[in-house]
Structure formats: structure tokens, C-alpha cells
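Aim 2 progress update. The chain analyzed this quarter is reproduced below.
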Amino acid sequence: KPKFEYKSFEVENYSDFTITITGLKPSSTIDFALYIKSVIEGVEYVTYTCHWTFNTGDPKGPSFKYIQHKSSTINSITVSCGITEPGLGEIIEKGFVWLKYPDNGIWEEPRLEDNCLAYKAVTDGTDEEFSLEIKDLEVFTSYCIRAYAKMKYEDKVYTSYSNSEVWSTLNYTIPEFNTVKTKPSIKSPSAL
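Predicted C-alpha cells:
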């Protein structure tokens, strides 16, 4: 059964006014209408505007520090990130997602559906920096990487992401050897 709430206030003459509605529940559908009550020659009139329906946004998720590069090898990249504010719910998981950087340079933001590496299940969610080594990557290849956190709020799970950065794995390196040219040894006939 829908819950109806009415807020009223007085305006003078035909002035413009602004209404701010606070305390709305996240992820809700709101039906909204304005009404005007006026009294003309002792008779009260109520006029309604058309109804608007809008959805409130998802609850505020966690806020992240900037993702940082720690190190790279030929087939791994180690990154770290931290959460500055946990948001409205409980953080239940955090980690990193990544996509191979495309040759055409037009990249998409990586998401959980792409490649995901969870750090661990968490319960505190704040200020703790977390770091992971993303392994089994291609040699000398760039990857778009960002952190994620899953937040539980009123029986639903929401996912938030940090900024994205691009880092590369290293190239194979073949060590150079110093070569010394030597003359072939000639044995003297007396040594035979």
C-alpha cells in the first residue's frame, strides 16, 4: 500500500518557489505532484499539477583513494588502493578489475564481468590499503585497472569503482654477453 506524505507551505501572491525533498529512501520510486490551495470569495479550491514519477539513485557507495602502481614483471602487475569512506552500507568484498588495453586506444572501464581478483571478504571497509598482484598477464602488454568494492545495503549488493589507470607488463630482456674474440691456438710441432 503506498504511503502518502503531504508537505505544505505558504507563498505570497504568484511567486516562484523551490521545493527540496529530503530523507528519501535510496533505490525507491517516488510519485510526485504539486497542488495549490486557494481561497476565492470564501470558497476553498485545490488544483493539482500532473504527477511525476522518478527513481531515487542507488545508495552512496564507498569512496576510493587513487589507485597506485607498485610494480610490474613480464606477466604481472601489482597495484594498491584504499577506501576513504565506506558509504551507507557494509563493505563485503573489495579487489581489482582489469581489461587489456586495446590497440586502437579506445578503452572501456573494466567491470566485475571482465577480469576480477578479490582481495578478501571484509567487514570494516575504511582506510585499509589493499594491494594485489594480478598474475598470468601477457608480456609487454598494457592493462586498464581499477579497484572495486561490493557494499551490502538493505538486502541488496551494490558495486562501486575507483578511478582507472593504465599500466604495462615488462618486455622480455635478453642479457648481453661481452664476447672476446680469440685467436685459435696453434700447437708447436714439437708438442706433437
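The mean pLDDT is 80. The chain is about 0% helix and 40% strand. These observations will guide the mutagenesis experiments scheduled for the next reporting period.
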